[in-house]
What we know:
CATH topology of the largest domain: MetI-like fold
Distance between the termini: 24 Å
Structural class: mainly alpha
Number of domains: 2
CATH architecture of the largest domain: Orthogonal Bundle
CATH superfamily of the largest domain: MetI-like
Helix content: 55-70%
Strand order of the largest sheet: 1-2
Strand content: under 5%
Low-confidence stretches: none
Amino acid sequence: MTQRAQRTALGRVAMVVLALVLLAALWELYKAVAPADGVHLGSSSILPRSDDASMPHLSEIFKEFGKTEVSGSGTVLSSVVSAAWYSLRLAAAGFAVGVVVGFLLAIAMQRAEIIERALLPYVVLSQTVPLIALAPLVYGWSGNLNLFGLDWKPWMSVSVISAYLAFFPVAIGALRGLSSPPAVQTELLQCYAASWWQTLLRLRLPASVPYVLPALRLGAAAAVIGAIVAEISTGLQGGIGRLIISYAQQATGDPAKVYAPILGAAAMGLIAVGVISASGLALRRYDPPEATP
Length: 293
């Protein structure tokens, strides 16, 4: 790993830690200074309530992880970790499909301008469909769809929703990256009688790395969001989405408990983005060279 890559990695870790510390400080500061019933402007509430039922102290939230579940099947921490691991695997499957679909769309759109004009508006338009309305429709495929002798399972619907959210940033980022090489470079390869595939492999793909890596991080976070929302919308058991709903039903007697799976969901996003960032360190050699002063 080069010194530049090490500085970049350490800088990102430091920024994440600083952001989490700042967020925790703002939480406690707001709870200390804001009215218990929130801030109102006339009859409208413009800032949330800060009472213990709505905003427990962070110390109370973290204490929940050590408590035993009502069913006696383990601690809250073990339940959150198990549910997060299940949802993370569904998100990973969806992310993989989304990356493949996004790259194929980007390559096709870069290959021919007519394909880009035909597909790009629909790629953008696809993200305007409400996810909460789409998830139950995809979930309805369970038991009614058979692909090459494989019955469609409920978890596959959740992964499809994750792929649906993940493919968009990958397709747009990859298209921008594949189109980034200047004309002089592509014309030079044409002078050497390089085929389109050779140009793609030797020029366009390496040049697209600085564009694709941010798109992959965004796609990974979107895949996690898609999995959680799909679990909530479809009622799939075992994931962090349903655990949030289950704990929310207990919020009256234990308001801090509902925040435990929310923190687990946030950790899922950080893990997904962190894995992509760590994987991207191997591709740092394709970054543009640093400007000399």
